């Protein structure tokens, strides 16, 4: 049976568009759009048949199914032809068993989904492979698209630039000047994107790129574009698949523009609808206290949403005060008995450093999620026997300045409880031996 998908309004007003239409919001009511699938057609395979198919494709060399995203092509974007898929073997990131860290916290079954173990070092690759593949298909079909563009705090721009370069499509990136890490800044530069560093914050960049994208020949690649979430939802499928199709009790995820938690929810709901799972996990959204509009809205029971002026935070990729996917995220949290918690600069930095001492190398955004995890365990919401998966959104190597600043004790508003600076010694055996003996005696 042929599978198909379309863009539908999240508010349920009934408006539909082709996934190949250049449109980002409902033209009837102004709501955001989501990719929706013909689930009745997908029921032509049983739940066990889908599981077997997805398991069989995992890491295969058969194009394009070796990708963690395109191995689920029928659930993601069935209309794109294989020759127009732009893939870099994204996905299949490991769940790290955080045994020692979990033991310290009193959680027996703690895992960290290392989404940063990807081509450009973040989970954004999962969504960008879908978006760029659709754009390539559109261009192949004659649509006059000149470029793809995004506003970014770093990771989105890296993924967009890499995938656009692989496809031969010009990329335009708007970044807030001085507010992204050096490693994140150099990635789109190296991949040949037009990088515009604007004297504003992410929200200011977002306002401008949305105006630019009113020219339909410049395709918007931010997460308000529903295609991004189709790739990112495969994180949920991978987690369940990695646990032999069993569902964790909790997912803790750092959030900024709120596309990632919306995508995660889509993946779990689709599996439940098609019978692959019987229950849903609880979801905890983790925000930096200096960029916390979702947390503040949660405090009102989501009765009101007031954008904030995001303040400078070590978790720069989620330094967002007016998230475009707020409406989607609230729907997700309502369906998953979700909650929202925040972490201060001191909490996120020390949580990351504490996790590093047990074998991880956590980016500051993962530090936000780990800090929230600690709070939820301490107040008894997460139980000792719960299976918990923390989503690590990016690789720690993209944030070397954060790591150096922590161990040099130069981070503002952070008391470095786990600092481990190098000892500078003369090239003298006795001095070295004394240092080793002193360290091992602690």
Task: Give a structural overview.
With 442 residues, the chain is α/β, with parallel strands linked by helices. The chain has a domain at 95-121 and 229-407: Rossmann fold (3-Layer(aba) Sandwich). The protein has 17 helices and 13 strands. It has helices at 39-42, 47-57, 73-76, 99-105, 124-140, 155-167, 182-190, 202-212, 226-232, 234-242, 259-273, 293-299, 326-335, 345-356, 364-378, 400-407, 429-440; strands at residues 5-9, 16-17, 33-37, 95-97, 109-114, 147-151, 171-176, 194-198, 218-220, 250-254, 282-288, 339-343, 387-392. Strands 4-5-13-10-11-12 form a 6-stranded mixed β-sheet, sandwiched between helices. A 4-stranded parallel β-sheet has the order 8-7-6-9, with helices on both faces. A hairpin with a 6-residue loop joins strand 1 and strand 2 (16-17). Helix 6 runs parallel beside helix 7 (182-190) and helix 11 packs across helix 13 (326-335). The radius of gyration is 22 Å and the shape is globular. The protein starts with a strand and ends with a helix. The mean pLDDT is 96.
Low-confidence segments = none
Tally of DSSP helical segments:
17
Question: Given this structure, which CATH class of the domain at 95-121 and 229-407 is correct?
Answer: Alpha Beta
- Give the percentage of residues in beta strands: 5-15%
The succession of helices and strands, N to C, reads: EEEHHHEHEHEHEHEHEHHEHEHHEHHEHH
Tell me about the biggest sheet? 6 strands, mixed
Would you count the extended β strands for me? Answer: 13
Which strand order do you get reading across the main beta sheet?
Answer: 4-5-13-10-11-12
Helix content: 25-40%
**Average pLDDT rating:** 96
Second-tier CATH architecture of the domain at 95-121 and 229-407: 3-Layer(aba) Sandwich
- The value of Rg in angstroms is 22 Å
Please report the distance between the alpha carbons of the first and last residues: 66 Å
Approximate shape: globular
Oligomer: single chain
CATH topology of the domain at 95-121 and 229-407: Rossmann fold
Structural class label: alpha/beta
């Amino acid at each position: 049976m042929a599978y198909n998908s379309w863009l539908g309004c999240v508010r349920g007003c009934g408006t539909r568009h082709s996934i190949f239409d250049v449109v980002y919001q409902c033209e009837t009511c102004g709501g955001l759009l989501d990719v929706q699938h013909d689930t009745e057609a997908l029921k032509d395979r049983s739940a066990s048949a889908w599981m077997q198919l997805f398991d069989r494709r995992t890491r295969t060399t058969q194009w394009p199914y070796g990708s963690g995203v395109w191995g689920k092509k029928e659930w993601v974007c069935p209309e794109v032809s294989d020759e127009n898929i732009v893939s870099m073997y994204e996905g299949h990131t490991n769940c790290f068993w955080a045994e020692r860290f979990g033991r310290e916290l009193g959680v027996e079954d703690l895992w960290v989904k290392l989404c940063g173990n990807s081509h450009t070092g973040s989970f954004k690759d999962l969504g960008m492979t879908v978006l760029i593949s659709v754009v390539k298909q559109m261009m192949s079909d004659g649509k006059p698209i000149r470029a793809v563009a995004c506003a970014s705090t770093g990771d989105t721009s890296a993924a967009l630039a890499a995938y656009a370069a692989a496809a031969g499509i010009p990329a335009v990136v708007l970044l807030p000047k001085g507010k992204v890490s050096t490693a994140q800044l150099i990635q789109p530069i190296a991949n040949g994107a037009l990088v515009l560093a604007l004297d504003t914050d992410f929200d200011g960049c977002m306002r401008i790129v949305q105006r630019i994208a009113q020219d339909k020949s410049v395709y918007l690649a931010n997460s308000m574009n529903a295609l991004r979430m189709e790739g990112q939802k495969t994180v949920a499928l991978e987690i369940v698949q990695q646990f032999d199709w069993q569902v964790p009790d909790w997912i803790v995820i750092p959030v900024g523009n709120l596309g990632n938690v919306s995508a995660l929810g889509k993946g779990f709901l689709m599996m439940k609808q098609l019978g692959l799972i019987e229950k849903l996990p609880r979801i905890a959204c983790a925000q930096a206290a200096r960029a916390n509009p979702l947390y503040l809205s949660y405090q009102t029971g989501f009765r009101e949403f007031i954008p904030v002026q995001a303040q400078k935070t070590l978790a720069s990729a989620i330094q967002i005060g007016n998230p475009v996917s707020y409406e989607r995220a609230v729907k997700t949290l309502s369906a998953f008995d979700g909650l929202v918690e925040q972490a201060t600069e001191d909490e996120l930095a020390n949580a990351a450093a504490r996790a590093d001492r047990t074998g991880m190398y956590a980016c500051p955004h993962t530090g936000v999620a780990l800090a929230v995890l600690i709070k939820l365990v301490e107040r008894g919401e997460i139980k000792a026997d719960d299976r918990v998966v923390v989503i690590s959104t990016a690789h720690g190597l993209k944030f070397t300045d954060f790591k150096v600043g922590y161990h040099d004790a130069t981070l503002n508003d952070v008391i470095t409880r786990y600092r481990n600076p190098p000892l500078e010694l003369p090239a003298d055996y006795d001095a070295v031996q004394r240092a080793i003996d002193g360290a091992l005696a602690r």
